[in-house]
Amino acid sequence: MQVTILGSGTSVPRPRRAPSGVLVQEGDTSLLLDGGPGTLTRMAEAGVLLEDLDRAMYTHLHLDHTGDLPATLFALRNPDLHRTRPLDLHGPPGLAGLLQRLRAAWGRGAEAAACGVRVHAWNEAEATVFDGWRVEARRVRHGGQAHGLRVTSPTGRVLCYPGDTDVCDAVVDLARGADLLLLECSHPDERKVAGHLSPTPCGELAARAGARRLMLTHFYPGWNPSEAVAVAARGYAGPIELAHDGLRVTP
User: Fold this and answer.
1) Cα-Cα-Cα-Cα dihedral of 193, 97, 68, 62, to 10°?
2) Mind listing the pLDDT tens digit of every residue in the chain (251 residues)?
3) How are the residues of the chain apportioned to helix, strand and coil, as percentages rounded to the nearest 5?
4) Which of 60, 111, 115, 136 has its CB surrounded by the most CB atoms within 10 Å?
5) What pLDDT score does 114 carry?
6) CA 166, CA 192: separation in Å to the nearest integer?
7) pLDDT of residue 37
8) Where are the beta strands (DSSP E) in the chain?
9) Contacts with 199 (C-beta within 8 Å, 6 or more apart), sequence order
10) DSSP helix/strand/coil, 101
11) What was the pLDDT predicted at 109?
12) Computed over its alpha carbons, how large is the radius of gyration of the chain?
């Protein structure tokens, strides 16, 4: 499994910290986890074109995680984009309704492409299984039917990506024994915001889950994220690193 950080930032535009996007690859399969504005271009720069993407998976429907959905629909209709198989889109139950509203707003350009788009809603009671992959989804504390994800590759490597969340048992369950836990760390402890995480709870969640490796991402401006490592390390003894746009790791 290879994980590429396409965006380590938020809805607030900043150089070198684009909105959320994570590319997961193993063998011939490529998965996009979340896709904020500009993600398709960054994914192409990472070596995966939209015509080659297997599935796009969204933790929740906030703009900084789904902003490239209209661009995806537009691009799939373009005759210069040669894709013959459907694109599978996974997300919370509201995803299908969001696509309908986008088509109503953008007209013909956002209608279904010839290749087809298949929409799947997360089901906590049943994992999504395809081509040796397994994706488990659980509701997390962020509102808007946000779902955290546990992605297991055909070789058994495990990435836990809860998306945006506050402290909750669902994150611990999803991250249990994960090879890589990719946690949002939006603000420092003294400015923690409800529905988001800060360094201390990030470390505590990683320790409770027994994750093998912790990576922090989704940094809002106004603080220096390099301070987060030492703070998170007070509660977690494993390796901790900071995400940055373009970072590529093998869990």
Assistant:
1) 0
2) 999 999 999 999 899 999 999 999 999 999 999 999 999 999 999 999 999 999 999 999 999 999 999 999 999 988 899 899 999 999 999 999 999 999 898 887 777 778 889 999 999 999 999 999 999 999 999 988 999 999 999 999 999 999 999 999 999 999 999 999 999 999 999 999 999 999 999 999 999 999 999 999 999 999 999 999 999 999 999 999 999 999 999 99
3) 25, 25, 45
4) 60
5) 80
6) 10
7) 97
8) 2-7, 21-26, 29-35, 55-57, 87-91, 117-121, 128-130, 133-139, 147-152, 158-161, 180-184, 214-217, 240-242, 248-249
9) 185, 188, 189, 216, 227, 228, 229, 231, 232
10) helix
11) 73
12) 17
Spatial strand order in the sheet of 21-26: 117-121, 87-91, 55-57, 29-35, 21-26, 2-7, 248-249
CA–CA gap between residue 22 and residue 242 (Å, rounded): 14
Cβ distance 189 to 219 under 8 Å? no
Classify residue 87 by burial, with Cβ atoms within 10 Å: 0-12, 13-18, 19+: buried
pLDDT at residue 106 in the model: 85
Angle at the Cα of 14 from the Cα atoms of 12 and 18, rounded to 5 degrees: 80
Q: Which residues contact 190 (CB under 8 A, 6 or more apart)?
A: none
Closest CA to 203 of 230, 235, 172, 175: 235
> Which residues, 6 or more positions from 172, have their beta carbon under 8 angstroms from its beta carbon?
205, 208, 209
The token pair that represents 97 in the structure block: 């309704």
Res 73: pLDDT: 92
- Domains, the chain, with CATH or none: 2-249 (3.60.15.10)
183 near 205, Cβ under 8 Å? yes
